[in-house]
Amino acid sequence: MVSSLFALVALLAQDAFAQTGSARGANFLRFGCSQLSVERIDPLVNPGLIPSAHTHQIVGGNSFNSTMTPVSQDPSTTSSCTSCKLSEDFSNYWTASIYFQSPENGTFKRVPQMANGRLNGTLLEQDGGLTIYYMQPFSGTNLNVTVMSPGFRMLTGDPMLRSQANGSVAICHRCLAANERMTGGSGAPCSSTDTASFPTTPCPGGIRATVIFPSCWDGKNLDSPDNRSHVYYQPGSALAGDACPSSHPVRIPQVMYEIITGYGAHGDYLFGWKAGALQRAMNALGTNCFSETCPVLELQPSSNAINCTKPQQAVEDVGSDTWLKELPGGMKVQ
Asked: Where is the signal peptide (predicted)?
């Protein structure tokens, strides 16, 4: 029973827009990133602390470290490789790891997090990673966006959350049927068929989860003390629209992750694209640039992305291959 439950929870997170790209318009960039490392490092919430409070899976540029000081460290110049399929993207993307606890003896094992597999021939198919989206507005009269500046970072979600927060729009889950295993289901994420919590029934096709970041920026601050106040969700909806409040007037590309997660999930983002690359892609969306098929960007072979890894800076067993008696760092189960 333990192995069956673990295998169910560990199924690949599916692609939210597998069936909806043409219907909604070619207004998002989508690509897979392989796993760079799994460790207790978090330069946003616990800068300089080794180890940090809990385990993360990190993807992207291999200059990732515990400090990542804004401006003085630009991943696009300090990284020698990226685990993402787009070779000009050295940004770092990281999410909290989820652990399965055995009902037999109480031990823990880390649940694998993966990029999407067989939705098209270019997304990664391996144990580890994320699928990343950069989206323009899906509605409105102004579809233009302004790309973030070097040093920009943000956080969404709350690692301490154990119940649904009022107005929370950042995290959602979908329980997939068996015939949706490879397609990820149809329709946009965080619709009425999705839930804020883990599904409460078995999901034969796996659990598709989505982390959505704000799409409005104050245009001045690369970060804020809480890693949130400098950005804002479009009023009324988490998904991209063209309306931003006067306090955060700059419409930025909306970043979205596909990941396996729960109430306490959160996602961290640190901008690290080569100069001008992301803006070129966003300007080309809706013409001949869609998903990974974007002539203004360079794709690298999947093998290059998979081979871009980084040794743990906080060296410890995080339960990827073994069962642990307690969560890394002794973090309490809540």
From this structure: 1-18
